[in-house]
Each structure stands twice: as C-alpha cells, then as structure tokens.
Specification:
The structure is a single chain. The protein is 52% helix and 8% strand. The protein has 431 residues and is of the alpha/beta class. The protein folds into four domains: 7-106, Alpha-helical ferredoxin (Fumarate Reductase Iron-sulfur Protein, Chain B, domain 2, Orthogonal Bundle); 111-161, no CATH class; 174-300, 3-Layer(aba) Sandwich (Rossmann fold); 315-424, Rossmann fold, CATH 3.40.50. Helix 24 links the parallel strand 8 (387-390) and strand 9 (407-409). Helix 2 (13-24) crosses helix 7 and helix 5 crosses helix 7 (92-106). The longest helix is centred in the middle third of the chain and has 16 residues, at 235-250.
C-alpha cells in the first residue's frame, strides 16, 4: 500500500511503525474471510482491510478520529485471525492498537460511553475493586432481562456475564514450594480477574506445577497485565501496569519462565518488549519478560506428565482462544497435552472465529458478541462433547453464558488427569 507521510510525521516512532505496517498491505482481501465482523455482516469497513484504510486516512492527514473511525475500530475484536490469514505479514495488531490510542486521545465519546469505559478501566484491572463490584452485580443479576428490555443493553450484558457464585479473594503474594525435588522456578501472573471469577484455574496451575517439581512464586507488587485498558486505548494506564509487573517480576531471582493462564493476558505480556521499546529505563527488562513469558500449556508441554489413570474417558471440545491461536501462535500444545493424558479431543468447526468475548468487547458491543457466541455455541453443541476446554477466562465466561455444557480451563483437566482434583464445574454437572 502506498503511503504519503511527511518526514516530520515519520520522526514519531509510532507513525513510523504504522507506516511500515500499512506499506505491507497489498489489498488482497484474504483477511475478510476470517474476520468475524465481516463474516457476520459483510461490511467492508468492518473488515481488517477497511479498517486499515480508515486508519491510514486518519494518520496521514493527522486529523482527529471521526465518529466513523471510532465506530468501526470499536467493532474490531482484536481477535487477530486476519494476521494468521494474511499472506503479506501485515502486523494488524500493532496498527489497530495505535489507532485505539489515537481515538482515545482525539475523539470525544458520548457521556454515557465515557462513563462506562471509565468504570471498566477503574474496576476490572484491580481484583479487590472488581470483587466488590461483583457483589453488587450478583444482587442485580435476576433483573438482567428487565434491564435489557428498558434499553440498557450494556448493563444487561454485564449482569448476564456475572457468575452465580460469590467472588473470591485474590491470592496474596507468596511462594508455593514443590512437593518433591525442585526442577525449576516460575512466576505466575495472578493479578487479574482470574482469581476473582475462577480461582480454580490458578489453583490447578499451582497444583500441576508444584507436583511436577516447579516452584511457583507470586511476587509483591505484581498486578493486572494492562491488557484490558491497552485494548481500550488507555495506553498510559496500560504502560504503568506493565512497568509495575516488570519491576515485580525482575526482582525474583532464578526464574525459568513467567507463566500465564489467561491467553489474552499472555499475548499482551509477550508484547511488553514492543510496547516499551522506546523506554530507555524499561526496554531491556521488558524484552526479557517477553522472551520468558509462556502460556501454561507451553510450559507444561515438555514436562514429564503422566496420566494418573483415575480420570474417566471424556470427550473434550477444545476452544482455541483467539489470543492463543492467533496472538501467540500456540495451537498444538493444549490439544497434545489433553490427548496424551487420555482425553478425546475434538476440534471445533470454524475454530478460527472469535466467540465474542475479546476483553470488554462483550460488554461494549453486546449485540455482536451475542451473535458470535450463539454461532460458537451452536458449532460446539453439535459435537456433543462432555466438556468444553479453553485457555482464557474471557472465552470461558462468554461461552458458559450460552450453554449448559460445563466449561473449564485446559489446565484444570491437565491437573485432574495427573493427580489433582476434579474441576469444580465438572463436579457440578455430574449426575
């Protein structure tokens, strides 16, 4: 794609990176076949190619984001399926992330939307605040249908996604020692909604790792990875959270990996090196974090895991979270681990299409998210599995809101099959 940036514009490293990405695009349109929003409605401006044109026009002319630019960029899930499909290697993720930052800086959203986005940014990255908010949401959850009927669709979407169980307290900083000889040491990212919504995920991770000789450290000062606000264009807040994590993680000695159980968070942590590439204080440490960060299945894959023989034969529909398959290119390890441990693993048709979760997307764009969930759940239920496994808390919450099938994290099944406890959601669904 031909561009026409001035030398003064290209002196900005963000513009220079964007120009490189834009020039890689050859207008082929392969991305439209795998873009969820284009597949749903066929609107060219709701495809990666269409959004690239809108971003190019905004950046080249150095103009504030318009209503149309904000609307069509907001409709992007950042599922990154287009990057998997693109034959030219267009790094759409970096381009759309920068576009969101520009929108946040230059576009005045309606008051109600500003308040909603501000509330999400002030609550969700902070486990204790989020936990308190969930108590209130539980009280209102029975009225979600009424709230939707009177026109508050986004509030209704939040209430519908609220789990029925009481939120848990997040894990405190501590060290989990191994149960036998120590083979390694990892830092676990635990400062997000995982512990509040589904503490069994990190519990299963710690159980599986320590049982196989890996010491697990939850350091002081670590918190949310910054992913949620990063994808809302609030880059200052996202970078502050990234720097706090880098300080906390780099203070721990002899770390083999930073293990992440939420693939949306993992994709962002692996981008710390890029996000802080111009920061002379943090660039080197951020690059190290990106190198050693691993999804939990990546880290477990080479370990000598052996089935305990106590788990029943089960058919697992494996949902490949977009952030894992497209963002991190981790595709084989989760399925190979499950199959190795005795589960029958089924690929989901249209597995490249997003379920509609995408961080805060299912709250900010509830209608599109609902349609994507219905499509995803329909393809899963036709497989008639015993259980659905996924590697991202957002996907788990989104899919569980549309099906009666139990939805668990992949690592819960791995832990169970190697001597850990049966996942709580499976216990709830057993006759």
């Amino acid at each position: 794609m031909q561009t026409s940036f001035t030398l003064a514009q290209l002196a900005d490293p963000h513009i220079a990176e964007s120009e490189k990405i834009l020039r890689a695009c050859v207008h082929c349109g392969f991305c439209t076949a795998t873009c969820p929003t284009y597949v749903l409605d066929g609107n060219e401006l709701d495809s990666p190619r269409g959004r690239i044109y809108l971003i190019k026009d905004m950046l080249e002319n150095d103009r504030p984001a318009s209503h149309d630019v904000a609307r069509h960029i907001d409709r992007c899930l950042s599922c990154l399926a287009c990057m998997t499909t693109c034959p030219s290697g267009v790094h759409y993720m970096h381009l759309v992330d920068y576009a969101r930052e520009r929108i946040e800086q230059t576009y005045q959203r309606p008051l109600g939307e500003r308040l909603l986005r501000g509330m999400l940014a002030a609550l969700m990255p902070y486990p204790e605040r989020f936990r308190m908010a969930l108590f209130g949401a539980l009280l209102l959850k029975p009225f979600a249908g009424l709230v939707d009927a009177v026109g508050f669709k986004r509030l209704a979407a939040m209430l519908a996604l609220t789990p029925r169980h009481l939120p848990q307290r997040p894990l405190a900083p501590q060290v989990f020692p191994v149960t036998d000889a120590r083979r390694g040491r990892v830092v676990l990212l635990a400062g997000c909604v995982n512990d509040v919504l589904a503490p069994e995920i990190n519990a299963a991770t710690i159980s599986a790792l320590t049982r196989h000789g890996i010491e697990v450290v939850l350091p002081n000062g670590a918190g949310c990875c910054g992913s949620l606000v990063h994808h809302m264009g609030r880059e200052r807040q996202a970078l502050a959270q990234a720097r706090a994590n880098i300080d906390a993680w780099c203070a721990i000695q002899d770390v083999d990996a930073i293990v992440v159980t939420s693939s949306g968070c993992g994709t962002t942590v692996k981008e710390y090196g890029f996000m802080l590439r111009t920061d002379s204080v943090y660039a080197e440490r951020a690059a190290w974090v990106s190198r050693v960060a691993k999804d939990v299945t990546q880290f477990l894959a080479p370990l000598p895991l052996a089935p305990s023989g106590k788990t029943p034969k089960m058919v697992v529909a494996y949902h490949a979270a977009c952030s894992l398959q497209h963002g991190q290119k981790v595709t084989a390890e989760p399925k190979q681990l499950l199959a190795k441990l005795g589960f029958t693993v089924l690929d989901i048709p249209e597995g490249h299409l997003c379920c509609g979760s995408a961080g805060t997307y299912n709250i900010l764009q509830p209608d599109t998210a609902r349609r994507l969930r219905e499509r995803k759940v329909g393809t899963i239920e036709r497989l008639r599995p015993d259980v659905i496994a996924a590697g991202n808390i957002g996907c788990m919450t989104q899919i569980a809101a549309g099906t009666a099938l139990p939805v668990v994290h992949t690592v819960e099944l791995i832990d169970w099959a190697t001597g850990g406890r049966c996942p709580p959601r499976l216990q709830e669904h057993q006759p």
